[in-house]
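Retro notes
What went well: the complex prediction finally ran end to end.
Inputs used:
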Amino acid sequence: MELLAVARGPALWASLAVLVAGSLWRVAGILQLGAKTDLSEPRSTRLLAGAMRGIFARMIPRREFRHRGQLGVWNGYVYHLGLAVIVFGYLPHIHFVERLTELAWSPLPDAVVYLSVGLTFVSLFIALMERLTDPVRRLLSGFDDYFSWFVVVLPLATGMIAIHQAYAPGAAPAPPLDPLPLAMHLLSVELLFLWLPFGKLAHAFLVFASRGVTGAALARKGAIL
Amino acid sequence: MMERARTVLDSRKAPDARTAAREFVAQAGRDAAFQLEACVNCGQCADACHFHRVTGNPRHAPIYKLRPMLKAYQREAAPFSSLRKALGLAPPEVTAAELREWSELLYDSCNLCGRCTLVCPMGIDIAGLVRLAREGMAAGGFAPADLYKAAEKALDTGSPIGVRWPALKRQIELQEQETGLHVPVDAEGAEYLVVLTSIEIMGFPECIGALARIFRQAGASWTIPSAGFEATNVGVQMGSREVAAALLSRIVDAAERLKVKTVISPECGHAYSALRWEGPNLLGRCYGFEVVQITELLDRFVREGRLRLRGKDARRLTFHDPCQLVRRGGLTEAPRRLMDGVSANPVEMPGSGAASFCCGGGGGVSAIHRAEGLRFAAFECKKQQIEATGAEALVTACSNCRNVLEEAIEHYGMSLPVLGLTELVAQYLEPEARAG
């Protein structure tokens, strides 16, 4: 079987299976730890509202904590938004999702996506530099942090290599790209899928739980969220 | 309950890392686990922490302080921990040497102030997790010796500094002479039970007279118990739920014995946290009475018209937010409304409320002698917030903050009186009420 066929077939399905099963296992493993009922008299019983507020409010730093010189904070927005634009706005990616789920939406102009690729790439390297040079981040960081960074950058790099010609809008979903770079790109994405449930990238879904439980707990006390 | 508490104190004689690790894991329930798992090591919490800001020491990054707990959790309880162990990828066991090293990080350099919690983009309640991690440290015998001693004294005498009933009785008598008002003791069926901190009793006894004036004008019945009067809970500070429960049960016993409707948590941040939020969970049952913090009660009385204020302090006054009352306790507005009622010129510090800096002594730090230098250093952040206001006096609603602020102000050669909010309110009550 050709490498591209493997990447598009068994490797893709296997990595997706690990992604889904691993993520569910991780969440279930945490849920089974259980939680004790809080017996104190709540100041507010609007815990769901508190959880939702916790989830959304933390998307932007509180006004009191916004100050200049926090490159890491603002850089985080750049690569998260950049990745979102690339993953959800690029036509080949939409076709890829459509093949798997039959869901599709309008793509962003190629120029916007290519600009995002450039910005995201630079932004991810700034993030790495920060992690390596800032004493706090360097102390905190370990294999998980660096490998997670690597598996995010790798699909970006292989994707850039794979694009050697414009992908014509409206074209049939047949590959206009060279098979080998495309296969490498797919395999790098599959590596990301394989790693995501086990490492720091799982914050993609754990962040909602973490923010939610804290939001609910603080709302219960009427504390500052 | 007392025996279990004393067993925890005995752990310091033979510190055991495995006991600590077991307790770390036991504390990592669902909510804590979601938070431990969500961290992306972004380090933003370091910028929020006053200890890190003044020392620049990366080890003072709040999330780093949780490393031993995280390791124990990842090794024993986290999803995939068995797989990791089988593959030889699990973190090593926490060691006694490591925990001795972390004692400074989890106690001396953390006030449990929760500033880091508010800045964490993952929504991790780091301060809450440090509180849980301290359970492991205390159970394993790795809490600071000063806190074990204070806990022992509290179990023996009722107070972490050995204040017994005769000392309080004497202070009550002096305040009765001063105010000409009767202070009810052990009055069964009173509406309000007032408990106090040792710092208030010995350092700021005028708060008792202030309470007498306040309750008289409000027309409310109240009492102080001769047993179970101490609000300070060193068990919560050191991280021993056994000690905390034993100390707390004395207040609950007093409240139930005297059949009061409401227990008033005094001017003390962590006492409020212990009594109001942790108490029922420590005892494993709901209270049969309400717990109200004194500023909450004063605010309620003023708004109901039961307290009538007259005149205002003309000085430029600024309010220091006790972390456990305001940021962590949900009492942001009540003290501010009271301040507006008694101050002609109240001024807010930059970042007041959410981003207010701790005085440096919260979370038991003021009781740890070896942490004194670090505490004074950390005060630099608070000092800047105070100085930005140009205030002529500082007001707060926590006797521990007040004590710590006074010490730090003296240390830095500043000249700024620190006032208690309750006393300030009592000072501006309508005079006829004061005259009785």
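What we learned: Chain A has ten helices and no strands.
What to try next: split runs per interface for comparison.
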